[in-house]
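SEQUENCE-TO-STRUCTURE ENTRY
===========================
Question of interest: how does this chain fold, as expressed in backbone structure tokens?
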Amino acid sequence: MKFVFLYTEIAEYFLACCKELAKHGEVHVIRWPVNKEAPFEFNTHQIKLYQKNDYSFQQLQSLIKNINPNIIICSGWVDKDYLKLTKPYFKKIPTVMSCDTHWKGNLKQRLATIISRFTLLKIFSHAWVPGKIQQQYVLNLGFKLQNIETGFYSCDLTHFENIFQKQKALKEKEFPKRFLYVGRYYDFKGVNELWQAFIQLQEEQKNDWELWCLGVGDMTPIEHPKIKHFGFIQPKDLSNYTSQTGVFILPSRFEPWGVVVHEFTASGFPIILSSAVGAKEAFLQQGKNGFEFEARNVTSLKNAMKKMIDLSNEQLIQMGKHSHQLAQQISPITWANSILKILADK
């Protein structure tokens, strides 16, 4: 079989899923250029990658025609060229729209539910979403439930499973008293709230904990003796930091899903997530493997961090094990099976 993806910004986790899919046929990915704030180095063995900017629209049409795909999966509706490339294949093969937008019921989304009847539903036969919040959106857009798949995002589960197994004994011996943030340094990521909450906590309650931050962006890293900044880290080097840190925090003001949550639960981390993080639906059970706090609320985040600090090493270790168990529900195998299911049902 031949699978074609019309993709925006690819990431390592997406390629891990594609490698699993490549066991069933040829995987072709047309994609946008690499993001400057996330300059990942990719291993693309088994996958055929094409940078969209290297082709004219007509050349892309010819490329897809020559591939003769069994299915086309498109990243939402943001790229109008991708929509034009997909439309001729509607009702000939499965044409799948991915979507990670939350249903909020605002005016813009309600207008989209009307317009989609004349646009998206004449291009795409199926929708593929991460979870239930996004499922509600595409249902409202007019997609039938039987034509909607969930589980669109998965981490490279095997890779992070290995991290968990290798570092489990080390953390059971001495749990690292360090919070960890991995992500871009932008306002919408909530890093300013994270820094302020951590600093306030240090002032209010003497403790041994540090905050380690991995990432780059347009925000100037705050200076504090117990906050360390390491810049952008390639995925292959991440284990050097996971072995020395204990609790993962994602403080985003806006986060449709957050595959990084899956990565760190698979690695056996207790987690703290803002209410805006979509992945909490699958990977956070309040009090069992972590805590949720109100997005944008420094006090709420500080209180969640305080709860972690107040736990014993044994309680933190048990939380990490529970995270690891929750991570097993989605994998590159379940991801690939979603595509095979759509093909089987056509």
Q: What stands out?
A: Residues 117 and 142 are 7 Å apart (CA to CA). The chain has a mean pLDDT of 95. The radius of gyration is 21 Å. The domain at 157-327 is CATH 3.40.50.2000 (Rossmann fold).
